[in-house]
Amino acid sequence: MSDTVVVGLDVGGTSTRAAALSLDGARLGEGRAGGGNPTSHGADRAAAELLAALRAALAGIDPTRVRAGVIGLAGAGRLLADPNGRDAFDSAWAEAGLRCPYAVHGDALVAYASGTAAPDGTVLIAGTGAIAAQVRDLRLDRVADGHGWLLGDAGSGFWLGREAVRRLLTGLDRAQAPGDLGRRVLAELTGATAVDDRPRATVDAVVQAVTRRPPVELARLAPLVVSSARDGEPTAVALIAEAAAALAQSVSRIRPPGAADPVVLGGGLLTGDTPLAGAVRAELAGRWPDAPLLSAGDGAAAAAWLAARDLPEVTDPAALHARLVPPPA
Amino acid sequence: MSDTVVVGLDVGGTSTRAAALSLDGARLGEGRAGGGNPTSHGADRAAAELLAALRAALAGIDPTRVRAGVIGLAGAGRLLADPNGRDAFDSAWAEAGLRCPYAVHGDALVAYASGTAAPDGTVLIAGTGAIAAQVRDLRLDRVADGHGWLLGDAGSGFWLGREAVRRLLTGLDRAQAPGDLGRRVLAELTGATAVDDRPRATVDAVVQAVTRRPPVELARLAPLVVSSARDGEPTAVALIAEAAAALAQSVSRIRPPGAADPVVLGGGLLTGDTPLAGAVRAELAGRWPDAPLLSAGDGAAAAAWLAARDLPEVTDPAALHARLVPPPA
């Protein structure tokens, strides 16, 4: 049995996860730290979180056993283009005692690899934002959306939250009483539990509550839409259907008709048994009936697998994937 | 002939205009100053611009002849609710030598009154933002949209600019070469005169160029859409049609079917012979075939008329409107 250890890191906006695995699939260590996206947090802060997660994962492990590593993060291209960012990550890597090289991949590729070992396929991610990408030979190829909340992210958590507020406002303009979702959005934004009999005063209060905060915080309303849709609330059900159609539309921009390779669904809105995941699966199954629809799983383990598959002793990457990357719960 | 003078002010985000008129329609003075919206500029700055415009309009006029005044501005309700804002405007009014009272009205009411003397009707304004309002007895009644760029302003200049960028980005995602409008948007945002053969690099450059500036500056792309639509560019023509439908939809939320009272079109995108004005007129004529469709005109004169009509010697406000408010050029 190999003494070789591989490490993988999944660096997200709100948390950083690290995993150290042996090639027979033993999970030797795990680490977790705060958000480390260098684009949103700065390279030094990101590198500090990376180091904290790495140290926790490597506790009790001789670091010279580590032969390969992969860091998955959003904006990987920007990190690699920035000498300061690359230096900060190099230093954290060395401070953790690691002497092997590491590679940096986009978080979308790591999400894809957490769902399948197939070299070619599609990944669709919907969380706060939304992005779809084609994967060719385990590299990101064409990309759709990921344009950010101002210009895109159609079908994302931000989009769901913004559209829920828009429906509330247009209903108030029509002097209609808000439905259940509208009342929940109103309570969340303004604390109001009853609707003022002056609709314009309510409109102004809602607009002011939203514009007081960073726009991206509209994504915090997405769970209200999801839970209302579970209850069958009509506006929420309609928004989920629209979001699913928008996400499938993004996939259509880059995925050929009739493709039979897998589609991996990732991000908080598409992993697990959510109404949006169900609606997206139905949209995708209608357009690509022969494609396996898979769920993203453990990103840190998938990053470790991506690191391991280039080692000379790895002859069957698919079998290694089955050992290293646990199927989604 | 009356010795009475009335003054009107139209306070906008980019300029403040003042007019001093006699009741027989003689234009005694005009003034212009910088943007004075208290919401965006602060009450003190707004009051300083107001005073500058007032002084210019009143040059050579005995201020004791001024018997009434109206200030029209966006966010009038917020000004009146804020004691500091009200104090700043009171002080400017007194510093200009005026002893008569003044009233503050929303810019939408002033735009309406610049197009008609009819006490009841609808005003639709599309500039950087977009708002529609019902007018009842020359007071603003129900309002639709005006929710700001993040949540609304459907069919506005901001909306046109953002949608033009969105069309460019989704086309690049599909690896399609941009059309004429897309190339103009790309050149305006990035300076690129040729499209990179790596669409994702172009996408990133566009997203970065937009997100470096305040979002509302997307409205600066609206003139490209308007001029491309004049040339028959298909994407621009489609965007203008969508914007017109969205603006008519906002009106539909508040204006009863079959209403025959006038609709006044205001704002930079709807005054004059613009493609959007033409498309909006067609939409409105289809929905309200009996309604006169009018164009907003001189806001400062309209504000002066709103001030004058409450004077005891004014017995025929419509005739006074014909004397005081010049028809749009």
Summed up, what is this model?
Chains A, B: InterPro entries: ATPase_BadF, ATPase_NBD, Euk-type_GlcNAc_Kinase. Two copies of one chain form a homodimer. Chain A contains 13 helices and ten strands.
SSE inventory with pairings:
The structure is a homodimer.
Chain A: E1 5-11, E2 15-22, E3 27-34, H1 38-41, H2 43-57, E4 66-73, H3 76-81, H4 83-95, E5 102-106, H5 107-113, E6 121-126, E7 130-136, E8 139-145, H6 157-173, H7 180-190, H8 199-211, H9 222-230, H10 234-254, E9 263-266, H11 275-287, E10 293-295, H12 299-308, H13 317-324
Parallel strand pairs in A: 1-4, 4-5, 6-9, 9-10
Antiparallel strand pairs in A: 1-2, 2-3, 6-7, 7-8
Helix pairs in contact in A: 2-4, 5-12, 6-7, 6-8, 6-9, 6-10, 9-10, 10-11, 12-13
